[in-house]
Structures are given as C-alpha cells and as structure tokens.
Amino acid sequence: MKKCILSLGLLSLLVFASTSWAKTPTIGFMTGLVRGSTVNDPYNSITSRGLFKIQQEYKFKTITQRPDNNDVKSIEKAFQKLVNQKVDLIVCSGYQFTEPGKKFAKLYPKIMFIMNDAGPIHDILNVSTPNFAQHEGSFLVGALAGKLTKTGKVGFVGGVEIPPLKAFLVGYKEGVRYSDAKVEVKHVFITKGPDYSGFVSPEKGRSIAEKMYKEDVDIIYNVASLSGNGIIHVAKQQKKFVIGVDYDQDAMAKGYVLTSMVKRLDRSTYAEVKNFLDGNFQPGSKIYGLKEGGISLTKMKYTQHLISADVQEYLKIIQSKIISGEIKITNYLLSR
Predict the structure, then answer these.
(1) Is 142 helix (H, G, I), strand (E, B) or coil?
(2) pLDDT value of residue 20
(3) 227-265, pLDDT tens digit by residue?
(4) Among 232, 271, 269, which Cα is nearest to 252's?
(5) Residues 307, 303: Cα–Cα separation, whole Å
(6) Is the torsion defined by CA of 10, 15, 17, 18 positive or negative?
(7) How many Å apart are CA 299 and CA 302, to the nearest integer?
(8) 206 and 151 in contact (C-beta within 8 Å)?
(9) Which residues contact 205 (CB under 8 A, 6 or more apart)?
(10) What distance in Å separates the CA atoms of residue 82 and residue 131, rounded to the nearest whole number?
(11) What pTM was computed for the model?
(12) What's the rounded Cα separation, in Å, for the pair 137 and 139?
C-alpha cells in the first residue's frame, strides 16, 4: 500500500490518479442496517452518492457489506468480511461504526478507513474521520424555531442518545436562546446507545411527537433518521411544524417541514476518497461545517410564505457571524 501511495505522488499529473495503481483499487462500503434493507437509509444513500460521483472520475471496484444487526459483534463480522476480500479502503458512516472501526484499523494498518461521523480520532494513522459541524446547523434551526414559535415551547427528538446527537441538541438549545431566552426546549431521545433501534422506529417517533404537540410544543426538531418519518407524519396530520435533518425532507410534508438541516456526507465522502485515490490520504478528524459547505439549510421551497424575508435575512446574518467566528457555539464533541 505504501508503495502505491508513493507512486501516486510521483504521477500526480495524470488525469486519473487511480491509473497509477499497480492494480485497480478496491473500496469497501459498509452500510448501516435499517430493517433488513439499506435502500431508504439516509446515511447510506447520501454516502453512496459521494461514492458514485467519484467513481465517474476514477476507476475502482466497490464491495458493499451490511452487518446482520447493529450490535458490535455483527458489525465486526461485517468488517471482517470486507477485510477478507482484500479491500484497500473501507468507507462507513455512522457513530455505531466507531469502536469496531478503530479496532479493525489497528488490526489492519495497511487498509485505510474513512469513517464519517465517527467522532474525533487523531491517533490512528490509517483512519480519517470527517465530522460535521452539526452544532452550527442546529444553532441556525434553533434560532429559526425561537423566532417562529407561537407557544413559547419547541421540541427536540433524537433517535439515539450518543455524543453526535447531543451536539445537535446543545447547538439547537443555544440557537433557540439566541432568538428568545424565554422559549422552553423539551427534548427526548428514543433510545440510548448502543441500542440503535431509536433510528428505525417510526411508531415511537410518532408517539413522542403526539405527546409533545399535545403539550403545546409547536415546532419539533427531528434528529431521528427513519424514526423521524413518524414525527413528520404527525406534524402534517396535526398541522404543526417540524424541522428535518440529514437530507432535504421538506417535500415529505409540504408546508409543515419548515426547513431541513442537511449534512453533506456525499461531499465529505467524495473529497476523502479522492484524497485516497490521489495518494493524499490524510488521517485524523476533519470538520465539515457551514464554511466548508458540509452543513446547510434547505431553500425552504414550501415554507416561503411562512418565513418572512426579515427572518430569512436574520438567518443569513447569523450564518455569516458563525462562519466569521463572531457567534461562538458549543461543540459538545470537543467539550466533553
């Protein structure tokens, strides 16, 4: 592997860096488990878009592997299957892969790992961890919720109580307080890690949303993956408001999803895999935030009539202040 990387550096003038490999590189794509299928999992689909894009420019083989369950033993078994197929790089997205991924990276130092959203990992030379400034995007949607709430009560539903989702919550609370310190923020996590079923339980999301809306919450920040589908369903049914996450969910309930806080795993996957193929693999934690285009809000296509021009300008000003550093937001992942 080291020889390949060195040769890539010498042949960097080639249009397709992958052509300088002694053999066509093989990339293993580890997907998450969602009720026995990977088709509708946002993390899988967004990450795969990044892989698809880079594969239009470089020649490499892809092997997709899915664990039988989300427990550590099943994930480790899936990692081993990829290793046995002699992959050069493993790409995965999600906090559940952090500890098993670190273990296998140490066991197989010649295989490179790109682990999106795995938290800060600085001490393993074959691991790159693109992390997202969810605290920045969550601050923005919190500021929006604080501006628009009519009842003075807003909600947060997290799929699983794990550090990245706590970072969402902390940023959201700070954003709400920035707009109105008197607004109350109610929050619920569906499950606690390592039980990741909180990401795939729409019925539980629905039940929690019904209870929150009954308690006068009029806007819920949904950070629950597929469980959030239940929250969005209730919002539409009860004519309440919800904020989407990870990808553009605005069309799922037109006029009731105020905006979505989009996490660009496709962008990080493309950039990190490109670095690997070019022989520029860089280990350690990288932040993809507002400044880097890793986090963004949607264009609010279906809620323009609800969000005034003044409020939209207010959000733009906040975003520029976050990027410039004028507004400081707690990053839970770094403050623990």
Answers:
(1) helix
(2) 64
(3) 999 999 999 999 999 999 999 999 999 999 999 999 999
(4) 232
(5) 6
(6) negative
(7) 9
(8) no
(9) 157, 190, 222, 224, 227, 228, 229, 230, 231
(10) 23
(11) 0.84
(12) 5
Counting every residue written for the chain, the total comes to 336
Domains of the chain: 2-132+265-288 (3.40.50.2300), 134-263+304-335 (3.40.50.2300)
Q: What is the 3-state secondary structure (H, E, C) of 10-76?
A: HCCCCCCHHHHCCCCCEEEEECCCECCECCCCHHHHHHHHHHHHHHCCCCCEEEEECCCCCCHHHHH
The alpha carbon of 83 is separated from its chain's Cα centroid by a whole number of angstroms, namely 25
The token pair that represents 326 in the structure block:
């004028």
Report the distance separating Cα 83 and Cα 252, nearest Å.
38
Integer Rg of the chain from CA: 20
Please count the other Cβ atoms lying within 10 Å of the Cβ belonging to residue 224: 33
